[in-house]
Design a protein that fits this description.
A two-stranded antiparallel ribbon has the order 1-2. It contains twelve helices and two strands. The chain is an all-alpha fold and 320 residues long.
């Protein structure tokens, strides 16, 4: 039974969860096709190539089922224009202050999965896979490959930060999309780098310089990344779980494509980040390629994943 910890008043149920998913799918489609190019031109990792080959869509399927890539690119461009204009140092400082100044809800991890399921899927009763099944697909792909239990759990929870959309996010632009540092010049490794022209930080005498407010080799722990579902969940898990550093890096950096896929911002890294980059690169293919025809059974898998949740989230009830 849902208790008072899950007061529905804290959620903005007027938000269009399916629109958020549509934007997310378009972003992922563009990132998927960029990764496909890496496989084809020989710059992909062996793990990426292996998982990509296992994830190929059935060639017999009707190609018209899949969205037109150019249309997806157009929608993604419009999304990134807004994100790149509004993700400023001032906004990111405010977002972090807001995060620490209040508890939005108190839920267990599984309750959060169910809530995300309800908020996103209720507007589309014909959806083939629920949000929980999508989360389980990622986790099960990782489990089938014999990865550690903490890795499996990371696959299960890594997108739970999307709950931010139904709390106090200003729009889709501060929830999803590729992430990047703020407080220094926007690097050409960022998707659509020419769309920052209306961001006031590009005219700031400090923020517009190569290193900005940072120092070479300062370490990414000391870098402020654009606020969104990754950063939100990272702070929650860092404070309320026993997940290892590699898992926290997978959560925080899985949308940091300019860094883990395009080779940008390496001048800010320290020795610890070199290890974390390997972990993120190992996780990224599961994030991109976990689509499959299998429909996970929530009831069959729940006991297994509840054990993992209880092991790594000892407080059970999480402050969101």
């Amino acid at each position: 039974m849902v208790g008072p910890r899950l007061d529905s008043n804290v959620f903005n149920t007027e938000r269009d969860g399916q629109a958020l998913e549509k934007t997310t799918d378009d972003i992922q489609e563009v990132n998927f096709l960029k990764a496909k190019l890496r496989v084809e031109n020989g710059t992909a990792t062996e793990e990426e190539k292996s998982i990509y080959e296992k994830s190929q869509f059935d060639a017999e399927k009707d190609k018209t089922q899949f969205r037109n890539y150019e249309d997806a690119c157009d929608r993604v461009k419009n999304f990134y224009k807004e994100q790149h204009t509004k993700q400023t140092v001032a906004y990111n400082l405010k977002a972090r202050n807001d995060f620490r100044s209040k508890v939005r809800a108190e839920m267990t991890i599984w309750e959060a999965m169910e809530k995300l399921n309800t908020l996103i899927d209720e507007s589309d009763p014909d959806t083939e896979l629920s949000q929980i099944q999508h989360l389980l697909q990622s986790a099960e792909a990782i489990r089938r490959d014999g990865k550690p239990k903490w890795f499996q759990l990371t696959g299960l929870v890594h997108d739970l930060g999307k709950l931010l959309f139904f709390f106090d996010a200003q729009g889709q632009w501060d929830v999803v999309g590729d992430t990047f540092p703020v407080g220094c010049a926007f690097d050409k490794s960022i998707i659509y780098p020419g769309s920052f022209s209306d961001n006031p930080d590009t005219k700031d005498p400090i923020y517009s310089t190569k290193y900005g407010i940072y120092n070479p080799g300062c370490g990414l722990d000391n870098v402020m990344l654009s606020w969104g579902h990754d950063e939100y969940l990272y702070h929650i898990c860092r404070e309320q779980s026993t997940l290892p550093d590699e898992a926290l890096a997978m959560i925080r950096y899985h949308s940091f494509y300019p860094w883990h896929s395009a080779g940008g911002y390496h001048e800010l890294m320290n020795e610890h980040d070199e290890k974390m980059l390997k972990a993120v690169k190992a996780f990224n293919p599961y994030d991109l390629y976990s689509k499959s025809d299998g429909m996970p059974s929530v009831e069959e898998l729940k006991p297994y994943y509840m054990e993992l949740i209880n092991e790594y989230f000892p407080n059970k009830v999480i402050r969101w």
